[in-house]
Amino acid sequence: MAKITYVEHNGTNHTVDVQNGLTVMEGAVQNNIPGIDADCGGSMACATCHVYVKEDWFDKINKKNEGEDDMLDQAYEPKKNSRLSCQIIVSDDLDGLVVDMPEKQT
Amino acid sequence: MIKTDALIIGAGPTGLFTAHQLKLIGLDCEVVDNLDKIGGQCIELYPDKPIYDIPAVPECTGEELTNNLINQLKPFDIKFHLSERVDEVKKDGDKWTVKTNKGTSFTTPNVIIAGGVGSFEPRKFSVEGHEKFENKSILYSIRDKNIFKGKTVSIFGGGDSALDWAVELSNNCNVNLIHRRDEFRGAQATVDKVHELAKSKKINLFTKFQLKKLNGSNEIESIEIEDDDKRIVNIKTDYVLGFFGLIMQLGPIANWGLNIDKKTVEVDTEKFETNQKGIYAVGDICNYPGKLKLILSGFHEGALAARACFKLARPNEKYRFEFTTSSKAIKNRLGVKSD
């Protein structure tokens, strides 16, 4: 279990407990947190669960999967610290993770 | 004005099987899709990805599933209107008038929305003021490459479309290719070609750069691009092309007076009818208690919506449930011999 904080573009914070094994995307969708669309349902086939991972966390979470950057090319305003939240697997180590959401996904 | 018993919006797996069900029970139908090919998300997002939960099909890719569904429609004559987006659905007596962005119009008692997460549209630039240049000096697709002859064209993106056009246009234009990282996702041969052309200065390559600012009054005069270290480069350019892939937008569906919640349309589970009589929603775009976004659910929903269409398309006939294994009428429609 990890406490994950999702920050909307307007600054609104949502902190929720997410079970180990789920993805950061699923944590948002299951808790009705706005800002993550996840149109493809987590198959890394779109870029609508795009988040920015705070610098100090970026190196701690699992590395990008092959093809993830290809999808991020198609995201809304990708940055250096962009990730697809469907590719970040939650574990105890992620307790306290903060992700910022872009202004919009599409 | 095209007359049809049912109009299907969306040529993904659900739309295709719904067409099959309509034809099987003796109704005619036409299909509209904004993509230039049949298959929806299966063909656009994951043609090569294996799917494991289609009943009786242990494993198939999005492309194989699409091809099988198209094959299943072979006995029937179904008109597809591709590269067209339905913009307007209006009530006209007991029928619906449907218009596309290309001007095609339909009159039908039944509209079945099988639109997935909406229609595929190109991802656009997000920098300030991009709207006023769009379709003039900012383009997301190319209809006539001759307009670029002798001009400076700045292409953004790292996939096949961006690379193919960079190579093609480098023949007679001044081409800048700008991408947010130094890896490209296009075909290796094209990537090699781009690097070769960059070496011989036929293409000006800017990697790890993104668009920052557009300058110009009516037409673009120059752009500013910025790299990861906030270094800014100013480029004089006549055209800016963006190839960032396609995104799905609910689009005009939102304006048809339907109950919409979180980009999905509320339906009942008997007919998969929306709050508007004669408009149905099936597949990923519909929403009801217990809804599963699975292809198999879309098939079920389409089968039931098709039966509901019968009542409105043939008000004076009674729908009779029949099996494909035994019904003479169905076998006739399929063009197979009865025993």
What is the element layout, followed by pairings?
The complex is a heterodimer of chains A (106) and B (339).
Chain A: E1 2-7, E2 13-18, H1 24-30, E3 50-53, H2 55-58, H3 68-72, E4 82-84, E5 97-100
Parallel strand pairs in A: 1-5
Antiparallel strand pairs in A: 1-2, 3-4, 3-5
Chain B: E1 2-3, E2 6-9, H1 13-24, E3 29-33, H2 41-44, E4 50-51, E5 60-61, H3 62-72, E6 79-82, E7 86-92, E8 95-100, E9 105-108, E10 111-113, E11 119-122, H4 130-133, E12 138-139, E13 152-156, H5 160-169, E14 174-179, H6 188-199, E15 203-207, E16 209-215, E17 222-227, E18 232-236, E19 239-242, E20 246-249, E21 260-261, E22 264-266, E23 279-281, E24 286-287, H7 295-313, H8 328-334
Parallel strand pairs in B: 1-9, 2-3, 2-10, 3-6, 10-23, 12-19, 13-14, 13-19, 14-15, 22-24
Antiparallel strand pairs in B: 4-5, 7-8, 8-9, 11-20, 16-17, 17-18, 21-22
Helix pairs in contact in B: 1-3, 1-7, 5-6
From the structure above, extract its key features:
heterodimer; A: 106 residues; Ubiquitin-like (UB roll); five-stranded mixed sheet; 3 helices; globular; B: 339 residues; alpha/beta; FAD/NAD(P)-binding domain; 2 domains; five-stranded parallel sheet
Low-confidence stretches of chain B: none
Tally of extended strands of chain A?
5
Tell me the structural class of chain A: alpha+beta
Count of the separate structural domains of chain B: 2
Can you tell me the CATH superfamily of the largest domain in chain B? FAD/NAD(P)-binding domain
> How many distinct folded domains of chain A?
1
Please tell me how large the radius of gyration of chain B is.
24 Å
At CATH level 3, the topology of chain A is Ubiquitin-like (UB roll)
Distance between the termini of chain A: 30 Å
By helix and strand content of chain B, what is the structural category?
Answer: alpha/beta
What is the CATH C-level name of chain A?
Answer: Alpha Beta
Main sheet record of chain A: 5 strands, mixed
Morphology call of chain A: globular
Strand order of the largest sheet of chain A: 2-1-5-3-4
Proportion of residues in helical segments of chain A: 10-25%
CATH topology of the largest domain in chain B: FAD/NAD(P)-binding domain
CATH superfamily of chain A: Beta-grasp domain
- With strands numbered from the N-terminus, the spatial order across the biggest sheet of chain B is 6-3-2-10-23
Number of separate helices of chain B: 8
